[in-house]
Structure formats: structure tokens, C-alpha cells
Write a structure and sequence with these properties.
Layout (H helix, E strand, L loop, with lengths): L41 E3 L7 E3 L4 E10 L7 H25 L2 E3 L2 E2 H7 L4 H9 L2 E9 L5 E10 L8 H9 L1 H13 L12 E7 L10 E3 L5 E4 L5 H4 L9 E3 L3 H6 L7 E5 L2 E2 L5 E2 L2 H9 L3 H4 L3 E6 L2
Parallel strand pairs: 8-12, 8-15, 9-14, 11-15
Antiparallel strand pairs: 1-2, 3-7, 4-5, 6-7, 9-10, 13-14
């Protein structure tokens, strides 16, 4: 009689899991796009595996592989089933690891925020289980073994986004309300005839930037001009401004094309990047940003053009 203990071992082969900057397929609209994929930037996180975040399309994707040896299973069909099951389990596990490793602030990762609000951990894990399956395929290899590949994807922000549980708790905290009020009070009144801008386009050139999810626009004197806590998320979740912001590579035309910042954005050059990953602009530009119609700041109409050279 064949030993049943030999029927179930699986040879795991994790070829890689990555957050891809290739655009998602059209059937995953409205937050999936296929056009002009060569123009957006991939930010590589510093962790113990390859990972990338697409800040243009606001998603995280993970790819995992699982293999089964047909000599140690009941049949070829059994091998294919086990390989696919293995790949799925690895993909969900690595997606959770990737999300937990996302940088929230200069010294805080997403996992730290989940520990702070432990009652939402279950909710986040449930969201991970509902991640979109981009594709699954099983291949019979020449050596007789079976290889399965699975790709999962999840939105970062907006309605149903993985970041929203933490954002919602941040918005409930008294400190957030206080900072938002001070921002409104410190804003100089809009002058008559002042040009109405449709958004903000921040330009970074020749500076190294590893952006956290919640970065700020600051002045040289460390005054906060804007951060994501000022965003009206109820509006941002239902309109085109889902996600914290858009990141583009050198291309102002493409930035305008995506609609977030409109046709007449206020263009501001970033002078410096702080250790915390915040963007420093000149006092003159900060004053201009405060004096203009600032409704677009609450609507999250912000984009960044980033070039290291």
C-alpha cells in the first residue's frame, strides 16, 4: 500500500513577488488604466524583497508561484490543484507583508499603524482576502513538474482602499481636526482677480525622494502648507482624486491629461526634501499657494513630476 504521507508534500518555489508598474487590464476600471505605461515612476522600497508601488494608478500588485512534484501526488490533476493552491496562499501572504511594509511616515510603517489601532487589523486582513485576482495559470513543465502563477492586486486609497481604515482613524483624532482648523485660519483671504488654479503640480528635479504615504508640503521655516489630513476624503473617494496623489516622470502633459490637476495647475518647484520625506517649497510659493483659491487642496488635486537628474 502506498504511504499516504507521501501524497501531499509540495515543493514550494517562490520566484518573486513584486508590485508592478505595468498598467492593469481595462476590465478593472475605473482605477485600472492601460495607456502610456512607460511614463510613470516606480518607487522601490527598501525591504527584504523586491517591491514597487504604482502611485499613478494607485494600486499594489503581488505575483507568486507554487510548484508541485507529480511523483509525490495522486495524479497530474492533483499536482495542478496543489500548485495553484500553493501559489494563491503565497500571494495572499506576500500581499499582506507588502502592505504592512509600506512607509507611512519617515519612521512609521503601515504595520505600526495597525498595531496602534489593533481593532482594525481584522478588517484589513479581510480586505486582503478580497483582493482582485488578475490572473491565474498552471503550466506543465518539461521535467514533469507543475508550476502555477497567481497575480493579485489591491487599491491603496479611495473607497475600499487598503489605506482607508488608518486614514479614517486619523481623521477621527482631535489632533487632525485641530490642524485642519489652523490651516483654514492661517489662510489669507483670496484677493479679487486672483487666478483660479485647478490643482497643484509639484516639480522635483535632481533630488532623491522615497515618499511615505503621508508626506507634507512645508516651508523652509518648517511650517506645514498641506498634508493629506487636510483632504476631504468623502469627496476624494467618490471623485477622480482617489489616492493620495499622482506621480509622473518628467511629463507635464501626461500629468494634465489624467485630469486630477486640471488644465491650469499651480506649478511649484520643490527646493528640498527633508529626512521625513516632506517636500519643501519657497516662502514665496507657499504664500501663493495659501492666497489662491485653495479648494483644490481639500479635493486632493495634487500631482508630482519626479526626476532624479
Amino acid at each position: 500500500m502506498k504511504n499516504t504521507n507521501d501524497t501531499h508534500p509540495i515543493l514550494f518555489m517562490l520566484a518573486g513577488f513584486l508590485l508592478s508598474a505595468t498598467a492593469l487590464f481595462g476590465q478593472y476600471d475605473p482605477w485600472a488604466h492601460t495607456e502610456e505605461t512607460q511614463n510613470f515612476v516606480k518607487i522601490v522600497k527598501k525591504d527584504n524583497y523586491r517591491s514597487r508601488v504604482d502611485h499613478l494608478h494607485d494600486y499594489v500588485m503581488v505575483e507568486a508561484e507554487g510548484a508541485a512534484d507529480p511523483r509525490k501526488v495522486l495524479s497530474q490533476a492533483h499536482a495542478r490543484t496543489l500548485a495553484l493552491k500553493t501559489a494563491r496562499a503565497l500571494a495572499y501572504e506576500k500581499l499582506m507583508e507588502t502592505v504592512e511594509g509600506l512607509k507611512m511616515t519617515s519612521n512609521t510603517i503601515y504595520k505600526d499603524e495597525l498595531l496602534k489601532w489593533s481593532f482594525i487589523v481584522t478588517r484589513v486582513k479581510g480586505m486582503i482576502k478580497n483582493a482582485e485576482v488578475l490572473d491565474e495559470n498552471v503550466t506543465d513543465l518539461d521535467d514533469g513538474s507543475v508550476l502555477a502563477k497567481v497575480r493579485l492586486v489591491y487599491r491603496l486609497h479611495g473607497q475600499g482602499g487598503i489605506m482607508m481604515p488608518v486614514i479614517e482613524e486619523m481623521l477621527r483624532s482631535p489632533a487632525v481636526v485641530k490642524e485642519r482648523k489652523s490651516f483654514e485660519v492661517n489662510n489669507p483671504p483670496r484677493k479679487k482677480g486672483n487666478r483660479k488654479y485647478t490643482g497643484v503640480l509639484l516639480k522635483i528635479r535632481g533630488l532623491k525622494w522615497d515618499p511615505p504615504e503621508f508626506w507634507k508640503i512645508k516651508t523652509p521655516s518648517s511650517q506645514t502648507v498641506w498634508d493629506t489630513r487636510f483632504v476631504d476624503w468623502e469627496y476624494a473617494n467618490t471623485e477622480i482624486t482617489y489616492g493620495t496623489w499622482n506621480l509622473f516622470k518628467k511629463d507635464k502633459k501626461l500629468a494634465k491629461k489624467y485630469g486630477r490637476i486640471g488644465d491650469s495647475p499651480l506649478e511649484i518647484k520643490v527646493k528640498q526634501i527633508t529626512e521625513a520625506g516632506n517636500l519643501v517649497i519657497s516662502e514665496k510659493d507657499a504664500l501663493k499657494l495659501r492666497q489662491t483659491n485653495n479648494e483644490f487642496l481639500y479635493e486632493n488635486r495634487i500631482a508630482v513630476i519626479y526626476s532624479k537628474k
